[in-house]
Amino acid sequence: MRHPCIRIFAPLLVCLAAAPAFAATHTIFQSGFTFSPADLTIAAGDTVVWQWSSGAHTVTNGTSLGDPNLGNLFDAALNAGASTFTHVFADEGVVPYLCRPHAGLGMTGTVTVEAAAAADELPAADLPVLGRNAPNPFNPRTEIAFALPADTAVRLVVLDVAGRRVTTLVDGERMAAGPHRRAWDGRDTSGNGVAAGVYLYVLEADGVRLSGTMALVK
After folding, report:
1. Most buried of 92, 181, 188, 204, CB within 10 angstroms?
2. What is the pTM of this model?
C-alpha cells in the first residue's frame, strides 16, 4: 500500500546548529577490523564517539601509515582500557582516519564535516519544514529535526518501508513555533530493538504531511 505522505522533502540543514543546544553526537562502532559506519557525514560542531567492542586498536587521523600528517589531529587508543574515544569536529572538510595496527586490513574511515546552520538561519516558510535526521546511518540513536511556522499540534511517527507504524515519537502534542528535534533509539512501540534497515519518519503538522528516510545499521 502506498504511503499516505503527500510531500517528500529533500534533506535540509535544519537545527544542525553550531550552538551546543543543537549540536549532535554520532557513534561509530568498532567490530572486528571495521568501523561502522566507516564513512560518516556530520555538521560542524558535532561530536563523534568511537565505541570499542574487542581487540586492540587506535583511532588515528590520516590517509595511510605513510601520511606525513598522521595523528596530528587525533591519535588515541581504542581497547579494553580505553573503550571510547571522543572528538568534536569544529572545522569543515573531510577527515580520513585509520587504525594503526590494522590499516592494512582495510580498517579505515572518513568523517565529512559540513557547514552547520544556526537556528536563526532557518528558511522563512509558511508551512512546516522537515529536516534530515542525524546521524544517518545510525546505531542505535538518531535525532529528527523539524521546524514549525506557528504553534500547532504535531504528530511524528516512524514507519517501516511497507508503511507499518513502528513507533510514535510525538502524538498530537501542541508545539511552539520554531526549530525542534526528537530522538529515536531504534526501538518499536513495545520497547523492542528493530532490525537493521531503512525506515521512514513522517511529520504531520498544520494539515501537512512530510517524510524522510533513515538507515539503521548494526
Report:
1. 204
2. 0.52
